[in-house]
């Protein structure tokens, strides 16, 4: 078998599996295609959306290859889903409600009011949101934005807000609505573990993969992430309870809070005058993630299913259509109720069956392998695992209730990957013997096993070209076979980096607007997690910030931990150095916009004590690595 850096064709094992998918799934059901194209009004004349420098941030024609027949290098079910998600343009959902779809990972919804338009979830970046709004205006007139709503706290639902709204608009009275807790969760998720999440998100969305039949074909929930400017404008109106009603520009809305479902802060909206229900990201045309592969806090499928029951009870009998911030709408009251019911049953079944099985002693991998979905749910396209999967969702539920440890003491104190790999390879007769046997397993079509054993060789000796090549080939075949878009992207990104080295992380949600939204407590916490503990074990440094118009804030580095306290109580102690300054000056220091040695020279800043102690404290901080290794040590 060749061992080079070239993408290979699909093996016969994969091709045969795809034939079974074509045979067993209802590909003659065209309802989704009809719904995805319904109400189409037109799309942008220029398919490439660019940033201020002229660089492309989105290409509407990048997925044109999906119009052809599905090749053996892609799962036919995922190909179908990606084809549906690649429909792009402006769509009329019902008279007065429009969606821009296919301009980003998410949808932007535009509701017409008495004077202007109310924008829901303005995409990932300002450039795509502005292009979407321009498309709407080219068909419906140059109406002003009279309100914005974020349905939840993920960046693909607020990041493009500056493409549709300015700070001056908000100061002039344009409201920005969001669920209670939105700001806290939006900024904390994107900052505390943001570097690691962004690196893994590059794998999850296949950021560096070529778009094509052997590369990135979509992510199931949408196609991929745009690469423009991520922004955030603070909400001005909090939605704090289910049943709360708000009217913006004559548009009546009734809200249902759904915290702890797809996001920690999320809501659904009913529009009584349109008989329309917005389900945010709580009911979309796929099984969603209970634990996204980029990393997050585990979501609660039990709560999720109960909120879907509540949605049916509150709004099912009042809704002639349902739409979401991904995918395409569902029309007809009976179809809406059936769709929500099947989505509800999907999450409830997963939750209950995983609990049943773990209480019988099965571990997370065993449950993921054995759990089978009911045929009635499996027949519905929208329950398929294009974004979440039954396998990794089952493991997430196990993790939520029992954590990482499966109870077997042999797994309590295992060697880390490299040290363990070296021992495995030695026990298995050395690298060449492992590779010899793994190549036979590859020929037998057992790619899962190849990936598992050859991973040990790669981690024992990352320069072993034969191991890297074989591992890349195995991951590639696994990717070709996946119905799940994010699994495919992870496998193919792994193969790409094994062949060519790290290709970097092209997008980041740690944007200036997001950093500016951090409270001082959150900002100091974000600094504390960068302290190199072992280097700072013997340090003992106290810095007090006397902030104009606020209580003093004192930071102390001791025992390798950076703690902070507000006020002048006993916990504050005596500082080594104190700075009198504005909050803006303090923020600039903590985010690195001004060097600590230059702080004293700023107008209005006063220093008492040894300013060098601040330089020493900040010297114990490590910079995060946005391109850390994943498939190699």
SS content category: alpha+beta
Report the oligomer.
single chain
**Overall shape:** globular
Low-pLDDT parts are none
Please state how the strands of the largest beta sheet are arranged side by side. Answer: 1-4-5-6-7-8-9-10
Query: What separation lies between the terminal Cα atoms?
Result: 25 Å
Query: What portion of residues is helical?
Result: 25-40%
Q: Give me the count of strands.
A: 21
How would you summarize this macromolecular structure in one to three sentences?
The chain is an alpha+beta fold and 633 residues long. The chain is 37% helix and 15% strand.
How do the strands and helices of this protein lay out in sequence?
Elements: H1 12-24, H2 31-37, E1 40-42, E2 48-50, E3 56-59, H3 76-85, E4 89-94, E5 97-101, E6 108-112, E7 117-120, H4 126-140, E8 145-149, H5 167-171, E9 176-179, H6 182-191, H7 194-204, E10 237-239, E11 245-248, E12 251-257, E13 267-271, E14 276-278, H8 301-315, E15 321-323, E16 330-331, H9 333-358, H10 364-370, H11 375-378, H12 390-402, H13 417-427, H14 431-443, H15 447-460, H16 465-481, H17 485-500, H18 512-516, H19 520-528, E17 540-547, E18 553-558, E19 561-566, E20 577-581, H20 583-590, E21 606-609, H21 612-618
Parallel strand pairs: 7-8, 8-9, 9-10, 14-15, 17-20
Antiparallel strand pairs: 1-4, 2-3, 4-5, 5-6, 6-7, 11-12, 12-13, 13-14, 15-16, 17-18, 18-19, 20-21
Helix pairs in contact: 1-16, 8-9, 9-12, 10-12, 13-15, 14-15, 14-16, 15-16, 16-17
């Amino acid at each position: 078998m060749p061992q080079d850096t070239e993408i290979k064709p699909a093996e016969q094992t994969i091709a045969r599996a795809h034939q079974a998918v074509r045979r067993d799934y209802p590909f003659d059901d065209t309802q989704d295609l009809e719904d995805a194209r319904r109400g189409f009004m037109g799309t942008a004349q220029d398919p490439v959306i660019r940033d201020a420098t002229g660089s492309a941030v989105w290409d509407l024609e990048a997925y044109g290859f999906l119009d052809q027949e599905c090749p053996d290098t892609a799962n036919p079910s995922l190909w179908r889903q990606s084809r549906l998600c690649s429909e792009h343009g402006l769509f009329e959902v019902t008279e007065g409600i429009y969606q821009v779809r296919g301009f980003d990972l998410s949808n932007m919804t535009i509701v017409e009011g008495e004077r202007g338009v109310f924008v829901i979830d303005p995409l990932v970046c300002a450039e795509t949101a502005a292009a979407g709004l321009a498309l709407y205006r080219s068909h419906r007139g140059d109406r002003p934005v009279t309100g914005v709503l974020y349905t939840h706290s993920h960046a693909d639902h607020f990041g493009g807000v500056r493409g549709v709204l300015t700070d001056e608009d908000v100061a002039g009275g344009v409201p920005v609505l969001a669920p209670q807790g939105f700001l806290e969760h939006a900024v904390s998720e994107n900052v505390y573990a943001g570097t690691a999440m962004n690196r893994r998100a590059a794998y999850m969305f296949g950021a560096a993969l070529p778009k094509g039949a052997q590369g990135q074909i979509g992510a199931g929930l949408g196609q991929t992430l745009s690469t423009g400017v991520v922004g955030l404008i603070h909400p001005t109106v909090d939605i704090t309870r289910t049943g709360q009603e708000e009217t913006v520009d004559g548009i009546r809305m009734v809200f249902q809070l759904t915290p702890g479902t797809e996001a920690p802060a999320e809501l659904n909206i009913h529009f009584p005058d349109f008989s329309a229900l917005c389900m945010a990201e709580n009911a979309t045309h796929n099984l969603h993630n209970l634990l996204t592969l980029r990393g997050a806090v585990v979501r609660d499928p039990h709560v999720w299913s109960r909120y879907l029951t509540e949605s049916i009870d509150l709004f099912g009998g009042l809704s002639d259509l349902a739409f979401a911030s991904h995918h395409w709408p569902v029309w007809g009251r009976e179809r809406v109720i059936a769709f929500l019911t099947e989505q509800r049953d999907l999450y409830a079944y997963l939750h209950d069956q995983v609990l049943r099985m773990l209480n019988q002693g099965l571990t997370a991998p065993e449950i993921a392998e054995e759990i089978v979905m009911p045929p009635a749910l499996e027949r519905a396209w929208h329950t398929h695992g294009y974004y979440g999967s039954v396998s990794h969702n089952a493991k997430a539920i196990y993790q939520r209730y029992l954590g990482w440890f499966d109870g077997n003491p042999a797994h309590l104190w295992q060697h880390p990957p490299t040290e363990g790999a070296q021992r495995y390879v030695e026990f298995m007769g050395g690298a060449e013997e492992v590779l010899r046997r793994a190549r036979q397993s590859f020929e037998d079509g057992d790619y899962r096993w190849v990936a598992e054993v050859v991973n040990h060789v790669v981690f024992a000796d990352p320069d072993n070209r034969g191991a890297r090549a074989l591992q890349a080939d195995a991951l590639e075949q696994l990717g070709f076979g996946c119905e799940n878009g994010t699994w495919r992207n992870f496998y193919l990104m792994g193969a790409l980096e094994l062949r060519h080295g790290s290709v970097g992380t092209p997008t980041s949600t740690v944007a200036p607007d997001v950093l500016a939204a951090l409270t001082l407590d959150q900002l100091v916490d974000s600094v504390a997690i960068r302290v190199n503990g072992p280097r700072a074990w013997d340090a003992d440094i106290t810095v007090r910030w006397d902030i104009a118009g606020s209580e003093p804030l004192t930071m102390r580095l001791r025992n390798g931990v950076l703690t902070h306290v507000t006020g002048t109580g006993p916990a504050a102690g005596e500082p080594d150095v104190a700075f009198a300054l504005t909050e803006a000056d303090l923020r600039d220091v903590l985010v690195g916009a001004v060097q600590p040695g230059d702080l004293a020279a700023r107008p209005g800043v006063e220093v008492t004590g040894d300013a060098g102690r601040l330089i020493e404290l900040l010297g114990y901080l490590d910079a995060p690595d946005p391109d850390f290794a994943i498939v190699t040590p």
